[in-house]
Design goal:
Layout lengths: L6 H18 L6 H18 L2 H31 L3 H34 L5
Helix pairs in contact: 1-2, 1-3, 2-3, 2-4, 3-4
Amino acid sequence: MRREGSIFVAMLIMLVVSFVVGLLLAWLPIVGPLLGPIVGGYLGGRFAGGIGRAFLAAILPAVLLSALISVIGLVFGGLAGGGIGAPLGLLAGSFLGLVIGIAAVSGLMIISAVVGGAMAEPR
């Protein structure tokens, strides 16, 4: 039987470690920002204690990141386009938030979280 941790704490570990490592290694071209989600996902996945729990803990930051990018798209779309810009900004922000948030950044976090969950120590 595997040791199971809290999904919420695993999610927080993924977010904090991803942010800190990505920020500290941002000076490295290409590789620096990608190492944050990999390290954070792996550590959070090990803490979650299983593949399914690690996957769920990695999906939650992806959804939060997508929502944040959608709100940013809404704000800048509304500021740039005037009256009609706000709905167009919401549509563009939602689509881009989904693509960028899940595929680019969180895809690495999800893969490394599943690996970390598979490597979790049995009790």
